[in-house]
Structure formats: structure tokens, C-alpha cells
């Protein structure tokens, strides 16, 4: 009642006010301005760079940066659909279906190709093939899905390693080169599950989902006793070549895809790993409100640095329901943006200055992404102010002749002649969604037929029955019991508040509740349909998870043991179904 009266008074007094200077009308104007930003960059690419991969926005030329197959167009497809541009979306899908081929002698990044190309094709396919999206293309005949499957099969040789953790690069025609580096990043090996999993569900071929899940298991099996993972690992020996643990560069999206894979597919194994990994991150890496990097075995401080890729974390915390620390951390991260007008790649927390050699801002979306999720969760008007400030910075500091430029030095706002495809796939997408949500949402994500999970490249992956309910027929865990005399436990109802030793995890996009102080409560139920649980089995035994002790860990055991026993306990969150 009080909220209604406040809203009524604000409306009567002149305008619906969201924040200082941001009115309901201005939210619409900002949304339209962001739409204009997208088309300035997209048209610049189409006019001056297409079909090359990316635009050089100062010289108005194109350049091939990944594989030479119209990267920016593919990365932009679902943004066109989100903006309701059916004509451009249709013509782009038709061009790609007729002209794109992957039988080319190019060695490409497995990670970047998966999140940008494979994810872009799958998202656009799911939109173009579904009448309920309002963007169905009548002449469309699954061309993008066929391309996605062809591409994924060309990427599969990268997974042929003793650990299951893939190589970082693969040749699309010849497979993995004999001289290919055996070192890959944790994010590179552990951020493939969404795209490959969706492809498995759409093609009924489990191989794609299996290899990426094995990669996650391979990484997690080599975690430290503190449940921390390092930044780089040898895919043949499983030894960590860089033992710095953090939430930013080289690790970031590993955490992200653990939670999102659970939400999208309902596979509780991902949730269990996320709980353990998140709890460890909050215990050893979180120095409220900042995050630092530590040695994965001893938790000794390595690097007091904020790097710009960390800025996705508050948004992930919103999905996990851990709102309070997300708010504090977002405030800290945005203070860096306010200080320079952009976030540098690295900001030293000891000197509170830009880290030497890390002064650039390559149009990254992570801070904007977290701003959108926090506004969606809280409806706090401060996040509209944040969005407006970011738009102003981009318009006055990064806009250039044919698009938007990298900022090579945030202290002097020096422009660089490059525009990453993710500027159109993510940066403007999250800005547009923020202001459209404030102005009264009218888009596929907020008003469409499905809930959507955003990939780490911002691609829209719908929670359709075919994708999200595929596992429901095999959720019976009783088969793990070797004792034939074991009598299955009685039916576990998700509505029973007295379920023993169960968190009653439910899949949902966003939650506003979390376990205080990350107290861990193990789950024995995914959706209330499991009838046959074996008594006494740990999650590791249920899921076949293992822990591999690497040689270097043995020498650090004595030091790490006292760290682990000095207050760290197994920590986790509940993921609830409350909608934000």
C-alpha cells in the first residue's frame, strides 16, 4: 500500500521518477539511444567490414580476427531479434545459411569459436525456427542448426586428451596440430557446456554434451584441497602451470557455466560443483567488497588486483540469490568506472591506481551485465544512473567514425582502431535490456514464451522443454546402489518442508534468497521426482567425481592443511525458483 501511494504521488507530481534525473520518459529515450548505438556500429560493420570478422571503426575497414566467417554478423543475430528487427534478422539468417562454410584450413580458438560462433548460430536457430518468438522465418529449414553441428564436429578433436580437458585451439580442416600447445586456461576448458549441451539436445547426439562435461570433471578433479582451481593447466599431465586462483582472467566463466548449466539442463552435478567452488571463492578470494587472487593450494595472497573480467561476478551472484555481497561489489567496481570513465583491464588495489600495462578498455560488457541483473533483481533506481553514466562514457569517449573504438588508455581516453564483436552481442544488448525493463519491457526476454539463460557471450538460450526437460526421464539415482536388499526411500516431495538432508533445490533464473554465511546443506533432490537414493553416498560417489593429487600439491600439503583447518568449511548456496 505504501509503495502504491509513493508511486501515485510521484506520478501526480509530474513524472514517474526512477533516479535523480532519470524519469520514465528518459528511460525510454535512453533505450532508444542505445538502439541507435547498436545500429551505428552494426551498419558500420555491414557497410565497411562485412563479410570479414570485425570492424576497424576509425579507418572504416574490416579485419579477420577469428576464422574469416562474418563473426560480427553471427554474434549480432539474436540482438537483432531482441530489437524486433525482423527484416535484418531474416536477411542475415538467409545469407549465413547460403554462404557460410567451415571446411576451411583455419586454426581457431576453441573457446572463442564456441561462445561466439556456435552460440550465435544456436541462439538464432532457436529464434528463427519457433513461431512463438514472433521472429519465425517461414523459409527457414534448420540451416543454422546444420552449420552448428558441422562446426562442433570439427571442434571435437580438441577433446582428445588424456585428461578430457581440451586443447585451446583446433584446425577446422585437419584437427589438432602436432605442435599445438598443451596448456589451456580453466575458462577455455570449462566454458563450453551450454553451447555443446544445447546442440546435443537439439540433435539427439549426446557426444557434444559428454565431452564438455568430461572437461569440467577433468578440471574439478584437479582442484586443490581448498576447492580452488588455478588459471592454466596442462591438458596431458593435468598439472597446473599457473596456480593463481581468482574469479577473473582465465577462470571467470568456469564458475558462470557451472550454475547456468544446472539452471538450463537441470543436471544437479553442476550445481554441486558450483556450490563447492563458490563457497571456496567466497571464503578465500573475497575481501569485502573486492576479490583478490591467491595460491590455489595455500591461499596465500598473490595479486591484489581488480581486473575488468571480474565484473560479471555480481550478476552471477544474482542468479545464485546472493544479493547483498553482489550490491557491495558492484558499487566498488563501478567506483573504478567513475574514476576513469571506463574500467581498465587491471586496477591495483594496493596503490588504487591503474595497473601498469593494463590501461585499456576493449568495450567489455561485464559491468553492464551485472548492472542489468541487479536492477532486475532489486528495481533499485541507482542502477539506471549507472547505465546512464555508462552510455555517456561510450558516446563521448568511444564513439568514432564507423562504430565504437577500443580505449587504449582509460586515463587519457585514447581511441584504438578495433571493435570486438561482443560489443554488439553483449555490451549494447545489456544496456538496451536495462532501460527497456525500466520503461516497461516489450521484448523477447521479458515477455517471450520462455525464460532465457544468457551465455557468456550474451546469446539467448531458451529453457524450452526439449532443452531443459531432456534429463527428467533419467533422474532416478537408485541404480547407484549395489546392495540388492536396499529398499528405496519413500517419495520425496518438493513441497515437504521436512525433507531430511535436502535443500530442495529448484531451478530458476534468479533468486532473492540464499543460505546465510554460505552454510552448506547437501541436496538429495532436483525436482521432487527422485525416489531411489542410496544411504550414505557422498555427492562425489553419486556423480563419480574424483580428486586427483598433483605432484606439486604433495609438497604444499602441510602449509595448506592449517589454512583449510583454520576456519574454512564447506560452503554453498541454495538456488530457489523465485523470479527476479
UniProtKB/TrEMBL annotation:
<dbReference type="GO" id="GO:0005509">
    <property type="term" value="F:calcium ion binding"/>
</dbReference>
<feature type="compositionally biased region" description="Polar residues">
    <location>
        <begin position="570"/>
        <end position="580"/>
    </location>
</feature>
<dbReference type="GO" id="GO:0016020">
    <property type="term" value="C:membrane"/>
</dbReference>
<keyword id="KW-0106">Calcium</keyword>
<comment type="similarity">
    <text>Belongs to the glycosyl hydrolase 47 family.</text>
</comment>
<feature type="active site">
    <location>
        <position position="366"/>
    </location>
</feature>
<dbReference type="InterPro" id="IPR012341">
    <property type="entry name" value="6hp_glycosidase-like_sf"/>
</dbReference>
<dbReference type="GO" id="GO:0005975">
    <property type="term" value="P:carbohydrate metabolic process"/>
</dbReference>
<feature type="compositionally biased region" description="Basic and acidic residues">
    <location>
        <begin position="554"/>
        <end position="564"/>
    </location>
</feature>
<dbReference type="GO" id="GO:0004571">
    <property type="term" value="F:mannosyl-oligosaccharide 1,2-alpha-mannosidase activity"/>
</dbReference>
<feature type="active site" description="Proton donor">
    <location>
        <position position="345"/>
    </location>
</feature>
<keyword id="KW-0325">Glycoprotein</keyword>
<dbReference type="GO" id="GO:1904380">
    <property type="term" value="P:endoplasmic reticulum mannose trimming"/>
</dbReference>
<keyword id="KW-0326">Glycosidase</keyword>
<feature type="active site" description="Proton donor">
    <location>
        <position position="112"/>
    </location>
</feature>
<dbReference type="Pfam" id="PF01532">
    <property type="entry name" value="Glyco_hydro_47"/>
</dbReference>
<keyword id="KW-0378">Hydrolase</keyword>
<keyword id="KW-0256">Endoplasmic reticulum</keyword>
<feature type="signal peptide">
    <location>
        <begin position="1"/>
        <end position="19"/>
    </location>
</feature>
<keyword id="KW-0479">Metal-binding</keyword>
<feature type="binding site">
    <location>
        <position position="456"/>
    </location>
    <ligand>
        <name>Ca(2+)</name>
    </ligand>
</feature>
<dbReference type="InterPro" id="IPR044674">
    <property type="entry name" value="EDEM1/2/3"/>
</dbReference>
<dbReference type="GO" id="GO:0044322">
    <property type="term" value="C:endoplasmic reticulum quality control compartment"/>
</dbReference>
<protein>
    <recommendedName>
        <fullName>alpha-1,2-Mannosidase</fullName>
        <ecNumber>3.2.1.-</ecNumber>
    </recommendedName>
</protein>
<dbReference type="InterPro" id="IPR036026">
    <property type="entry name" value="Seven-hairpin_glycosidases"/>
</dbReference>
<feature type="active site">
    <location>
        <position position="252"/>
    </location>
</feature>
<dbReference type="InterPro" id="IPR001382">
    <property type="entry name" value="Glyco_hydro_47"/>
</dbReference>
<feature type="region of interest" description="Disordered">
    <location>
        <begin position="554"/>
        <end position="580"/>
    </location>
</feature>
<keyword id="KW-0732">Signal</keyword>
Amino acid at each position: 500500500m505504501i509503495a502504491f501511494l509513493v508511486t501515485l504521488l510521484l506520478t501526480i507530481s509530474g513524472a514517474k521518477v526512477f533516479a535523480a534525473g532519470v524519469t520514465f520518459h528518459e528511460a525510454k529515450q535512453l533505450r532508444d539511444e542505445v538502439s541507435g548505438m547498436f545500429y551505428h556500429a552494426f551498419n558500420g560493420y555491414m557497410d565497411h567490414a562485412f563479410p570479414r570478422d570485425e570492424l576497424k571503426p576509425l579507418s572504416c575497414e574490416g579485419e579477420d580476427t577469428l576464422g574469416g566467417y562474418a563473426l560480427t554478423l553471427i554474434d549480432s543475430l539474436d540482438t537483432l531479434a531482441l530489437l524486433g528487427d525482423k527484416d535484418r534478422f531474416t536477411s542475415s539468417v538467409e545469407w549465413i545459411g547460403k554462404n557460410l562454410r567451415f571446411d576451411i584450413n583455419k586454426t581457431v580458438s576453441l573457446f572463442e569459436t564456441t561462445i561466439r560462433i556456435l552460440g550465435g548460430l544456436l541462439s538464432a536457430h532457436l529464434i528463427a525456427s519457433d513461431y512463438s518468438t514472433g521472429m519465425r522465418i517461414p523459409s527457414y529449414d534448420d540451416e543454422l542448426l546444420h552449420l552448428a553441428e558441422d562446426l562442433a564436429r570439427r571442434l571435437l578433436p580438441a577433446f582428445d586428451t588424456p585428461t578430457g580437458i581440451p586443447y585451446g585451439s583446433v584446425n577446422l580442416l585437419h584437427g589438432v596440430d602436432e605442435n599445438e600447445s598443451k596448456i589451456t586456461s580453466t575458462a577455455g576448458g570449462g566454458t563450453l557446456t551450454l553451447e555443446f549441451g544445447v546442440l546435443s539436445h537439439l540433435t539427439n547426439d549426446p557426444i557434444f554434451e559428454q565431452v564438455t562435461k568430461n572437461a569440467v570433471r577433468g578440471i574439478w578433479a584437479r582442484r586443490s584441497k581448498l576447492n580452488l582451481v588455478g588459471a592454466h593447466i596442462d591438458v596431458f599431465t593435468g598439472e597446473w602451470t599457473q596456480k593463481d586462483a581468482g574469479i577473473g582472467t582465465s577462470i571467470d566463466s568456469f564458475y558462470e557455466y557451472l550454475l547456468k548449466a544446472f539452471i538450463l539442463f537441470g543436471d544437479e552435478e553442476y550445481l554441486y560443483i558450483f556450490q563447492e567452488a563458490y563457497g571456496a571463492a567466497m571464503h578465500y578470494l573475497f575481501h569485502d567488497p573486492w576479490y583478490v587472487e591467491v595460491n590455489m593450494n595455500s591461499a596465500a595472497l598473490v595479486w591484489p588486483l581488480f581486473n575488468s573480467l571480474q565484473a560479471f561476478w555480481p550478476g552471477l551472484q544474482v542468479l545464485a540469490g546472493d544479493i547483498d555481497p553482489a550490491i557491495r561489489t558492484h558499487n566498488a567496481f563501478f567506483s573504478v568506472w567513475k574514476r576513469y570513465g571506463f574500467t581498465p583491464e587491471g586496477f591495483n588495489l594496493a596503490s588504487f591506481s591503474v595497473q601498469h600495462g593494463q590501461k585499456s578498455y576493449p568495450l567489455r560488457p561485464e559491468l553492464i551485465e551485472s548492472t542489468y541483473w541487479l536492477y532486475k533483481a532489486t528495481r533499485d533506481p541507482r542502477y539506471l544512473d549507472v547505465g546512464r553514466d555508462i552510455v555517456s562514457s561510450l558516446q563521448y569517449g568511444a564513439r568514432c567514425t564507423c562504430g565504437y573504438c577500443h580505449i587504449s588508455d582509460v586515463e587519457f581516453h585514447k581511441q584504438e582502431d578495433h571493435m570486438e564483436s561482443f560489443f554488439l552481442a553483449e555490451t549494447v544488448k545489456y544496456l538496451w535490456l536495462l532501460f527497456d525493463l525500466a520503461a516497461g519491457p516489450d521484448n523477447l526476454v521479458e515477455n517471450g514464451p520462455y525464460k532465457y539463460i544468457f551465455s557468456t557471450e550474451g546469446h539467448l538460450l531458451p529453457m524450452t522443454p526439449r532443452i531443459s526437460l531432456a534429463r527428467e526421464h533419467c533422474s532416478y539415482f537408485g541404480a547407484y546402489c549395489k546392495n540388492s536388499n536396499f529398499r528405496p526411500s519413500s517419495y520425496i516431495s518438493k513441497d515437504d518442508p521436512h525433507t531430511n538432508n535436502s535443500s530442495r533445490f529448484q531451478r530458476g533464473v534468479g533468486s532473492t534468497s540464499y543460505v546465510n554465511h554460505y552454510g552448506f546443506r547437501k541436496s538429495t533432490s532436483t525436482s521432487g521426482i527422485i525416489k531411489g537414493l542410496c544411504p550414505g553416498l557422498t555427492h562425489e560417489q553419486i556423480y563419480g567425481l574424483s580428486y586427483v593429487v598433483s605432484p606439486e600439491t604433495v609438497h604444499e600439503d602441510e602449509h595448506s592443511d592449517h589454512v583449510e583447518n583454520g576456519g574454512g568449511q564447506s560452503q554453498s548456496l541454495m538456488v530457489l525458483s523465485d523470479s527476479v
